[in-house]
Amino acid sequence: FSPSVLGTREHWDAAYERELQTFQDIGDTGEIWFGEESMVRIIRWLEKHRVPLDSSVLDIGTGNGVLLVELAKSGYMNLTGIDYSPSAIQLSEKVREKEGMSNIKLKVEDFLAPSAELSGFDICIDKGTFDAVSLDPSDAAGKRKLYVASLCGVLKPEGFFLITSCNWTKEELLNEFREGFEILEELPTPKFCFGGRIGNSVTALVFQRK
């Protein structure tokens, strides 16, 4: 991919500062990455596979924290969200407060250099964070490797990793996560038709840590 400002911390700090101000002004939680259906897809998969409600869940790059709120509303109790942008965590704290979900844990963390206590999760979820890492203007390939190493460090063996991406195809993601992970399932995503060819603009996969 071409390097992009979408891969820089400065971009996301500025974006979440704006969203935080908007939330304080009018109570709008901001953009939901990949839309509402992306959250429904994740929650349906967890419910279908009867993932216990006390499973520890990590939302990587939580942004406004809305996915965690929806998981909490579905009965999940052990929820943690991290983001490297302090403004994103401030926003997600305000959203958590508004929704009365005091049990959601939120922390400023850089997933590429996670703190020691960030470990032992049953489930990790990524909606767009790996995409952003892949657009980093400084050594994106090296940072993708760091991401996979961090994921191996925070996710328990046999834990589940659910990733939603608009930059990567299924085959490319299988290659990126071949070290330490195996594919369990591809989740259905909206299809589009262009020039007589049918494709997916979003890829959603479930991996299991070996």
UniProtKB/TrEMBL annotation:
Gene3D superfamilies: Vaccinia Virus protein VP39. GO terms for biological process: methylation. The keyword Cell membrane does not apply. Residues 56-185 form the Methyltransferase domain. One of its GO terms (cellular component) is cytoplasm. Keywords: Cytoplasm, Methyltransferase, Nucleus, S-adenosyl-L-methionine, Transferase. It catalyses: L-lysyl-[protein] + 3 S-adenosyl-L-methionine = N(6),N(6),N(6)-trimethyl-L-lysyl-[protein] + 3 S-adenosyl-L-homocysteine + 3 H(+). Pfam families: Methyltransf_31. One of its GO terms (molecular function) is protein-lysine N-methyltransferase activity. The keyword Transmembrane does not apply. InterPro entries: Efm4/METTL10 (IPR026635), Methyltranfer_dom (IPR025714), SAM-dependent_MTases_sf (IPR029063). PANTHER family: EEF1A LYSINE METHYLTRANSFERASE 2, PROTEIN-LYSINE N-METHYLTRANSFERASE METTL10. This is EFMT2 methyltransferase. It comes from Illadopsis cleaveri. The gene is Eef1akmt2.
